[in-house]
Amino acid sequence: MLLGTTTTRLDFDPAAAEASRRIVADTLTSWGLDRAVETAKSCTSELVTDALRHGRSPLHLLIRHWTDCVQVLVIDGSEGHDGASELGPYGETTVRRRIVHALVGNWSVDSGPAGTAAWFDLETLPRAR
User: Fold this and answer.
1) Domains of the chain with CATH codes
2) 52: phi then psi, degrees, rounded to nearest 5
3) CB within 10 Å: which end of the chain, N or C, has fewer?
4) Sign of CA dihedral 110, 39, 11, 30
5) Radius of gyration of the chain from Cα atoms?
6) How confident is the model at residue 83 (pLDDT cuts 50, 70, 90)?
7) For residue 93, what pLDDT is reported?
8) Phi and psi dihedrals of 104, rounded to 5?
9) Long-range contacts of residues 23-28, Cβ cutoff 8 Å, at least 24 apart
10) How far is Cα 2 from Cα 40, in angstroms, rounded to an integer?
């Protein structure tokens, strides 16, 4: 069940990464999800930076609070990022994508005529001991 949502248009410039971290922190804190803030800020910043490097304007940040997770989407105006952006210079996964994968596990990039959305899900339920 969807418990909350917020959408923000970001300026398409390097300051968007910092703005996205602040928005995520404020939003998750207002939803009582303080424990998820640092991981969400780190992953959001990586996705925004990737969009700035490989996408184009407009740039939007969408945050959804589901019953068991927070989903963050970074949507840019490109129909698809260059496939080379998915790999580093030696064919390896980029550091940016390795960071997101290590922190949240469930993430992806989807492209279509309306833009490219990079997203991740961050579990918010307490973990069993």
Assistant:
1) 2-123 (3.30.565.10)
2) -65, -35
3) C
4) positive
5) 14
6) very low
7) 54
8) -125, -25
9) 23/61, 23/63, 24/61, 24/63, 24/72, 27/63, 28/63, 28/70
10) 18
